[in-house]
Amino acid sequence: MSITVVGSVAYDSIETPAGRRERCLGGAATYFSLAASFFTDVRVIAVVGDDFGPEQEAVFAARKIDTRGIEHTAGKSFFWEGSYLENFNEAKTRNTELNVFASFEPKIPNAYRDSDFLFLANIDPVLQRRVRESMPGVKLVAGDTMNYWIKDHRPALLEVLKGLDVLLINDTETRMIAGNNNLLQAARAVMALGPRFLVVKHGEYGATLFHEIRPKGERAELRTFRAPALPLEQVIDPTGAGDSFAGGFFGYLASQPELTPGTFRRAMFYGSVMGSFACECFGTERLQQLTRPEIDERFHVFRQLTHLD
Amino acid sequence: MSITVVGSVAYDSIETPAGRRERCLGGAATYFSLAASFFTDVRVIAVVGDDFGPEQEAVFAARKIDTRGIEHTAGKSFFWEGSYLENFNEAKTRNTELNVFASFEPKIPNAYRDSDFLFLANIDPVLQRRVRESMPGVKLVAGDTMNYWIKDHRPALLEVLKGLDVLLINDTETRMIAGNNNLLQAARAVMALGPRFLVVKHGEYGATLFHEIRPKGERAELRTFRAPALPLEQVIDPTGAGDSFAGGFFGYLASQPELTPGTFRRAMFYGSVMGSFACECFGTERLQQLTRPEIDERFHVFRQLTHLD
After folding, report:
1. pLDDT-derived band at B27, boundaries 50, 70, 90
2. In this complex, do B307 and A305 lie within 8 Å of one another by their Cβ atoms?
3. Which residue of A lies nearest to B85 if distances are taken between CA atoms?
4. Which DSSP symbol is given to A216?
5. Nearest CA to B120 among B152, B80, B59, B166?
6. Which of helix, strand or coil describes residue B45?
7. What is the pTM of this model?
8. From A201, which residue of chain B is nearest by alpha-carbon distance?
9. Chains A, B: CB contacts under 8 A, how many?
10. CA distance A301 to chain B (A)
């Protein structure tokens, strides 16, 4: 089943201990859709400027990603500059230029309206909600957010959470939304705000899935599933690892006939697989070169990394 | 098979967001031996002062731990005071009084000499080495260390590493020993100094086992296995969680007829199980009350937390 994703398509200048790259193609929607495209059809809603040309278009086309929802406007695309010199788990932002993204009004092409899966990448919750409400027929909605929206746009964010089935955020964001430092208690509090599934990302330590199961006639019970991150021989650039995780996770879900708890557990592994590949080169380079057999091979590595037998 | 452990038996005053306790029975050898005692016979080598009496002795006796190697001398026992108010993953030391521990000269009772397993808890590497050399017949030796020895006693520590089969340390210590920030490369570097097995503890994120396997006729290959930590409803006191992990890990190994890679993977789970229990009460309270069925039940929870099927 196809996924519609709304989010940023951007240029990133990145510095890591492995080097520096200027104006790589980036943005949450880019990483997400490249990662998800290995599992299912993906349709993107975003806005770009005059600096987005045939070369960038070709990156999406090579993965058969539908870009009819990428609006081209006069001006420059969203630009971000960040450094991981001090900490590989968290970027230090040096510069953010919203450019054409500042007046982004997501427009949903009619051809996208039969999508069964919707991913709301990290953008203004007012826009996330508008897109959610324009696609009432979707089967599963997942979303991301960040500290800025949690701190300063809480009422709008709470409205978005009500309409989400799955929320993917990191430890700090989980604790911030809940106002509780205990991860398990914080997870419960966040899920009480809407999402039935919560994926908490731990950077180099992997991610935890929280979801409720309700055995027949028994009280609901919070189940947790932990997928590790792969210790990599060399981390080149962690930019987009979280969005690639989301793409692998959601892409796998959308490719499956049934959404059982087991499907979600395997989705956590596919998310981790895609996140690990994203770190191996600057920007989206590794995702562009990736093949499906490599993905399946790494899924097997994750199994070996975690399973007793 | 029985384990001999050498390390500290101490009193700890602990402050955490859950409260404060004065002079709990603590010390690495205490946590280790309580945790390991659920799996196999344990014998302790340590030194205590006049403040260690029948009440403390009874804690060891209740778990059938051999305390003939605990030397009683005039003076006060090792005392540590620490706080987790700012960070649950790392204690802030407020006070350390070595007391009788300052002149600790480990003496190995003859009755301990047939031990097959030896655990060198975090003490001066000169003493670790002396104990190691006094027990040449042991089958498997594991050890721990800390930043202080790594920074200021490196030559002595390197001698200890040569004699270890298993080293259990945390992320920061691994990176410090190796002088390398990449965990996988650092693990390789540490293992090149001696230990065939390296367990890197990640606090609330679990622990990773690194070990070499050498498939017939192929090049040696570094295998990794990640055991998560359990997200707990309430963390009361993380003191001793790492030593309890070591006790569960090494105790399980000592209880098994064969040391296969699978045995080591299961040992990682038993380590995580014991570490999780240690955090549920102040000091050693939870380990004192624990039962074997509770351990097996929690092992099952760890399986659910990590396994796809």
Report:
1. very high
2. no
3. A181
4. T
5. B166
6. strand
7. 0.95
8. B205
9. 78
10. 9
